[in-house]
Amino acid sequence: MMSDKPLPSDADLLALALRLAREAGTVINAIREKGFVTKTKSDRSPVTEADQAAETHILAGLRAATPHIPVIAEEEVAAGIHVAAGDVYWLVDPLDGTREFAAGRDDFTVNIGLVRGDRAVLGAMALPAYGQFYAGGVGLGAKRFDSDGEHDIHVREAPEEGIAVLASRHHGDAPELKRFLDGRVIASIGNIGSAVKFVRVAEGVADFYPRLGPTMEWDTAAPQAIVEAAGGSVTLLDGSPLRYSKAGWKNPSFVCTGLLSLPA
Asked: Coil, strand or helix: which one is 146?
């Protein structure tokens, strides 16, 4: 028998994702404080107790609150658990930036995104080490939550003195990056790990983040939704939008930008 309970709105879904991202961040910080062991998965990427505990918490929350929406999560996929996505589904990266986390750095995130069709339509992120939380979606705007409260966030106009560029700490490609930046006035280039780079663009701290190599869809769904809700864009190198529901959940290279155009 079908329930008469109305389906949640996108605002309700975003609030759910934000709550679970916050709670997962608390789980991660607690494990960080007490200590943990880092292991290596079959694809040679690192995994910790924090990845697994955060994912367990998020999956339980999403599946209890939205049993009608499938959840695709990084550690389940790595363990060989495959869930059919459907037209609407959650994408979860319970700890993006495990290398950063394992090394004692602060640039790691929790990412919970919702995909509808082939588009990331809403997302919530936690930056547990910073005490910052982000949420955004189509028609919902983008916000940051921190110790000072709730703030609307927007990408910025490219400064006349030059753009701030963020690049991957572990997957940088200096010659390719130089090609992308040819003809532009550059104020700074920083290298940091994880999806933190997206939200720094979304909130107008940076202007340009090129990812010149593969990522997975759960890495990008939540942050892309937030960047786009803040007025920015995430596109492939040919300028077409980064889309979802691809074979194997793999993304090609892309660029995340604020209010600036790409070089021809």
From this structure: strand
